[in-house]
Design brief:
By secondary structure, this protein is mainly alpha-helical. It is about 85% helix and about 0% strand. It has nine helices and no strands. The termini are far apart.
Amino acid sequence: MIPATLRVDKFFERLASRLGAQTNAGIEFLGGITLISWRSFRALFRRPWESRSLIAQVEAIGIQSLPIVILTAAFTGMVMALQYASGMTRFGAQMYTGKLVAISLTRELGPVLTSLLVGGRVGAGIAAELGSMAVTEQIDAIRALGADPVKKLVLPRVMAAVMIMPFLSVITDIIGLIGGMVVAKMGFDIPMGYFINSALEVTSFSDFFSGVLKTIFFGFIIAIVGCYKGFNTRGGTEGVGKATTESVVIISIGILVCDYILTEIFMRIGMG
């Protein structure tokens, strides 16, 4: 029979060991992200530029993400209009639906939902693609040929994500407003013209700009985390699957944490 005090001691020993391992892994991850970000920034100013790779990544990240972004935006705007109008009908204030939908979309839901969706799709794809190259030693082969794998593989993906995410966010705002306008007209007989005018009346440029500006940071998180996890994949196909899953989780958490920090900053400077 193991004494109770010994069992407690072993429990806290295992807990401390696990916490120490997680802390070390977190510090290693932050250091690795910082290093690959700095190497990507330096590669930005070195020729030749990977223009073909950049165009291919813009298509993969932006164009191929359009269907899911449009579909999600439309139904998000429709659900928001339905919920707001239903709740405010009790108070005879359903005419404010357009204002609420516009503010919610432009400030938060548009950029965050778009980034989470694209992050899940693109982050997993980047991690899987680069992870497969890592376990098959293709990245080592690039280094052996004297080329910089960060410049050839990471930089085009980071630039494409940073460039395309604001456009996807704008599309989300527009499609979401259209979806909300249709539901407001069909379900609650709110004139479409009034819906749009009230939405534009209450939405300032700072509301719109702050939401779009956030997606630049979100795009960077999506690409750099996916690339880092892909580059550091080990263990064959099982390692690729693990890196893919971890990249999606980290990207989602990173976007939500970054959203809070940016919202706090924008509110303090009068943009939120």
